[in-house]
Specification:
Layout (H helix, E strand, L loop, with lengths): L1 H6 L1 H25 L4 H27 L8 H26 L2 H7 L3 H12 L9 H22 L4 E3 L6 H31 L3 H23 L11 H29 L1 H5 L2 H15 L4 E2 H49 L25
Antiparallel strand pairs: 1-2
């Protein structure tokens, strides 16, 4: 049983991460509806995340005496923080404020399609049109995106709640959420060179949160110049900043980076649809957001697409394991062949070390 769970650590981590992201989306939406500025919220979230994860990264590095973060990685981390954290989160929280948390989570399911396209273009994901595995990944991605679009756009009969947002706010929020999904895809791709050159995920996450906090402070100064904007006005806003900073950024960034280093960016992105289903259900129960029949049908499509792509990815890892076993067997076969070609009997020695004639008797090599 322990061996089976060991093989599915990355899958379990990503499922748990989707529940955390769902909580972040719901509590953030509730705080934004009370009037909290999205830019100020992002700054506090990243600042709290930095204060949380930096000490852990420092003491764990001292204990292990390993630190591989070089100066060449700092520009990459800065770029990843700017695109994947500062810009991404400002767009996302402004988008869910104008639209809804369900819409934000549904738009996030465009990430696998964008990530797959970028990864394929860069050669990270291999595409073989005659391969069932590649077709499964492509078809599953399309099914996920189609299900997500259905959840966002299809109406049909209404199942729960009656509030309807204005079409103007809904459209602008959807565009912001789409741009946020593109930024998140770029962040996932940037994790590949970062995690390859630096195995200390805690330190990378700490630096990323720190840089994002500085960048977010600059955004607040530019957008919200009045000092009153920095004030948190309710216990919900304080709780929101603490939860999203400690759990949503500090813990989530580390888990995300670890999963990417183990399975790649597409594997990580393909779990996003699960968050959509969780958010849609909880948002209807606690935030009274609308649920339509089209959303339920889209949710089924999302889950189906998720498992199709995971099947394709699982076959990739099976193929890698088989190829590794073949390489090992070939190497062992070559070693055995070389051993068999070696003579069991050593050549006769004419003289001993002191120059005397040796006994004309073969020796067996042990």
């Amino acid at each position: 049983m322990g061996g089976i769970l060991e093989n599915y650590k990355a899958e379990m981590a990503m499922v748990g991460l989707q529940f955390l992201y769902a909580g972040v989306s719901l509590i953030s939406r509730a705080a934004l509806l009370q009037g909290m500025s999205p830019a100020v919220f992002v700054f506090y979230r990243q600042s709290i995340a930095t204060l949380t994860i930096a000490p852990i990264a420092y003491f764990s590095r001292r204990k292990s005496d390993e630190f591989s973060l070089g100066l060449k990685n700092l520009p990459l981390i800065f770029l990843a923080s700017l695109i994947g954290v500062t810009i991404n989160q400002n767009l996302f929280f402004e988008g869910i404020y104008l639209a809804s948390s369900s819409m934000g989570s549904a738009m996030g399911n465009l990430v696998p399609a964008v990530t797959f396209a970028i990864a394929a273009f860069l050669g990270i994901e291999k595409i073989k049109l005659r391969s069932i595995r590649s077709l499964a990944k492509i078809g599953g991605t399309i099914l996920c995106v189609g299900g997500a679009i259905s959840m966002a756009l299809l109406r049909g009969s209404k199942l729960l709640n009656t509030s309807i947002l204005g079409s103007e706010n809904w459209l602008l929020g959807s565009l912001l959420l789409f741009a946020s999904a593109c930024c998140w895809s770029c962040w996932l791709i940037l994790q590949v060179p970062i995690t390859k050159s630096c195995s200390d995920h805690l330190s990378v996450s700490a630096w990323m949160c720190f840089m994002a906090a500085i960048q977010s402070a600059a955004v607040v100064i530019f957008i919200e110049p009045h000092p009153i904007s920095w004030k948190l006005k309710s216990h919900l806003e304080v709780l929101c900043c603490l939860f999203t900073g400690i759990i949503g950024s500090g813990l989530a960034f580390f888990v995300q980076a670890w999963c990417i280093s183990k399975r790649g960016p597409l594997f990580s992105a393909m779990f996003n649809p699960l968050c959509t289903v969780i958010v849609t259900i909880l948002a209807a129960l606690f935030l009274h957001e609308e649920i339509y029949m089209g959303s339920m049908i889209g949710g089924v499509g999302v889950i189906m697409g998720l498992y199709v792509v995971l099947w394709g990815k699982a076959k990739d890892f099976v193929s890698k394991d088989v190829s590794m076993l073949k390489d090992e067997s070939v190497e062992e076969e070559g070693t055995c062949k070389n051993d068999m070609e070696q003579p069991l009997l050593l050549p006769k020695s004419n003289t001993t070390d002191n120059g005397a004639d040796a006994i004309d008797q073969p020796r067996v090599e042990l």
